Amino acid sequence: MPRPARPNSSPPQRPRKPRGDHRTRQPAHEYVLEVLPGLEAVAEGELGAVPLARDIRGLRFWYPGDPERLTRLRSVVAAYRVRAWDVPRPRGLLGHQQLGELTAFLAEVVRFGGHRSFRLAAAGRESSVMARLADELQAALNLPHDPEEGELLIRLRPQEDGPGWEVLARLTPRPLSARAWRVCNRGGGLNATIAYALHKLAGQRDEDRIFNPMSGSGTLLVERALLGPYDAMVGVDLDPAAVACARANLQAARREVEVAQVDALHTGLPARSFDLIVSDLPWGDAIGTHGGNAELYPAFLSEMHRLLSRQGRLVVLTHELRLFERLLREQDRWHARELFQVYSGGHHPKAYLLGKR
Ligand SMILES: C[S@@+](CC[C@H](N)C(=O)[O-])C[C@H]1O[C@@H](n2cnc3c(N)ncnc32)[C@H](O)[C@@H]1O
Questions:
Q1: Total domains, the chain
Q2: 24 lies in some domain
Q3: Is pLDDT of 7 > 50?
């Protein structure tokens, strides 16, 4: 008999479902969030602010509310509804009853997300069992199976804390990290969930005057503009194509932020113009060169020290870890702490928060 997935790490005495109170009379479903490795704590913080999310174990939880709320999580790559079946192998999902329940489970997700095709993700997805499952689901859901681009991403995996298998169905046709505002993309563009995390950890203050030097496609500008009020915000980039790209993204997000084609090291702005400087520096591979960065980074730190207010915060995301950490060791004008290291697209940049000594 299929049954809902047990919470991964909950002690045995815990109820499998959160107890209903007057606010949780709608049926709860279990969900799991996917995040970039390194951003788990940020996502847990964001999840903690979702009203009615219950029985939270890391990024797994029960939720009786409208799933639409979960698609607004900004630190999350994808949100999945999850259900487990007490079957020893995926073949068990082909049983008459199991298949009926699986179809109903997936159909509800499709009703919500409007997916137009599906794909399966599982170890051995080429196997004959997976091929049969794909055929059965194609007929039952009346959705085309597209193994590469299918919008309803269905993951099958063994339960972590039980003998069965669980099925995860992605709520949205595209990952949540693929923002609707991104109408222009550039090589070296930052994953938007990282931009969100940088702003959350830098601190979000209404009175901040914010500078985003080297703004590229404007990811950090848009994500901050969407977070809420600030006193002022400006981005600059040397490359006119980057400036146009950032402007297009800001326009798509319906946010007015000034972006100028200016050298971040020679803005001509007065000292202490900003309370928060957020930067995604050239990493020395896709953007910039390692040799160039050896000169750029110290000049950048020096100019940002001038532009930052006394109590201001400087956030730096970089993949030039050795260079940047050596520069920090060799200076005494900044205090610094690491915010996170994140794994994204084959890179593992670190984020630092600096303040003036
Ligand atoms: C890593 S990319 C930034 C990517 C950006 N966060 C995004 O999401 O698209 C670095 C950017 O720095 C710009 N850049 C390099 N040196 C600069 C300088 N001295 N002043 C302003 N922009 C500069 C490059 O043109 C490039 O667009």
A1: 2
A2: no
A3: no
Domain that holds residue 257: 192-356
Same domain, 238 and 337: yes
Q: Strand pairing partners for 121?
A: 155
Q: Which of 54, 57, 72 is nearest to 171 (CA)?
A: 72
Residue 316: inside a domain: yes
Ligand 1 centroid–CA 282 distance in Å is 6
Lowest-pLDDT range of 13-22, 58-67, 70-79: 13-22
Show the tokens assigned to 148. Answer: 């590469």
CA 215 to centroid of ligand 1, rounded, Å: 5
For 154-218, the DSSP string reads EEEEE-SSSSSEEEEEESSSS-TTS-TT-----TTPPPHHHHHHHHHHH---TT-EEEEES-TT-
Distance in Å, CA 283 to ligand 1 centroid: 10
Instruction: Return the residue matching tokens 């923002």.
Output: 179
Task: Tell me the per-residue pLDDT of 74-104, one tens digit each, with 9 for 90 and over.
Answer: 999 999 999 999 999 999 999 999 999 999 9
Name all residues whose Cβ lies below 6 A of ligand 1.
186, 188-190, 213-214, 216-217, 219-220, 236-239, 242, 263-265, 280, 282, 287
Per-residue pLDDT averaged across 195-204, rounded?
Answer: 97
Q: Nearest C-alpha to atom 1 of ligand 1 is from which residue?
A: 282
160 within some domain: yes
CATH classification of the domain holding 66: 3.30.2130.30
**For residue 184, is it within any domain?**
no
Domain end residue (candidates: 170, 202, 219) = 170
Read off the pLDDT of residues 101-148 as tens digits, 9 standing for 90 and up: 999 999 999 999 999 999 999 987 678 999 999 999 999 999 999 999
